Amino acid sequence: MYAVFKRELFSFLSSMVAYITIGIFLLVSGLLFWVFPDTSVLEYGYAELNGFFSLVPYLFMFLIPAITMRAFAEERREGTYELLVTRPIQLWQIIAAKYLSSLVLVLLALIPTIIYYYSISKLGFPEGNIDSGSVIGSYIGLFLLGAAFTAIGIFSSSLTKNQVIAFVICAALCAFAFLGFDYTSQVSLFKAIESPMMNLGINQHYTAISRGVLDTRDLIYFITFSALFLFLTKLMMGGKR
């Protein structure tokens, strides 16, 4: 399993795709957070990162599909998947290795954004006037959100040999998982079950963790959500195997 994880991680880091993808993510998030008037924290006038944490989930809908789209699609397109599954390693270990390597890349994309916290802390009046507990909770929420989206990405990549199609499927599923249940609950037909339906979506749980309060129900939700899509990936790849 470690050999597959290492191969996946270093093959991505040895290509320009990783640096371009992460670079675009950091560039766009920086422009949205510091430059564009409608979303700039300098225009808002408060020393907080709430705007940044509300924007990143939408950027994740493009970053994570770009990272995960090659996980199985490229293996099957190039014919190397057959060589991979004939190794003395179980299918779930292959899936876990690809999932963890992709999740590490998401984490690498998030780490440089910590400089935003430092900058806002210095800009606050008095200096350091920022809710650190809320920031830590929001970063944990982002990591769990990234884990959920990565599981969707691995599943999407197992559906097709075409990386572009895998990207589109993943982006669509991530958007629906994050926002779809909230919008669907507003339909008059589902008004009677509005609250339970909203709880099925990721946004409700991500927002709760971003407040700085770690509820075991939210943690269980993200773990269960990620495990479900990894299980679906195993079913899909097991059938093709």
Secondary-structure blueprint:
Layout: H1 2-13, H2 16-35, H3 41-44, H4 50-68, H5 73-78, H6 81-85, H7 91-110, H8 114-123, H9 132-157, H10 163-185, H11 194-200, H12 202-210, H13 216-240
Helix pairs in contact: 1-7, 2-4, 2-7, 4-7, 4-9, 4-10, 7-9, 7-13, 9-10, 9-12, 9-13, 10-11, 12-13
Structural summary, described in words:
The chain has one domain (2-240). It is 77% helix and 0% strand. The chain contains 13 helices and no strands. It has helices at residues 2-13, 16-35, 41-44, 50-68, 73-78, 81-85, 91-110, 114-123, 132-157, 163-185, 194-200, 202-210, 216-240. The protein starts with a helix and ends with a helix.
Shape: globular
Structural class: mainly alpha
Number of strands: 0
Structurally, the number of domains stands at 1
Indicate the mean pLDDT.
84
**Tally of separate helices:** 13
Distance between the termini: 18 Å
Estimate the helix proportion, in percent: over 70%
As a whole number of angstroms, the C-alpha radius of gyration is 19 Å
List SSEs in N-to-C order. HHHHHHHHHHHHH
Given as residue ranges, the uncertain stretches (5+ residues, pLDDT < 50) are none
Largest sheet: none
Percentage of residues in DSSP E strands: under 5%
Subcellular location: Cell membrane
GO cellular component, one term: plasma membrane
Membrane topology: Multi-pass membrane protein
Keywords: Cell membrane, Membrane, Transmembrane, Transmembrane helix
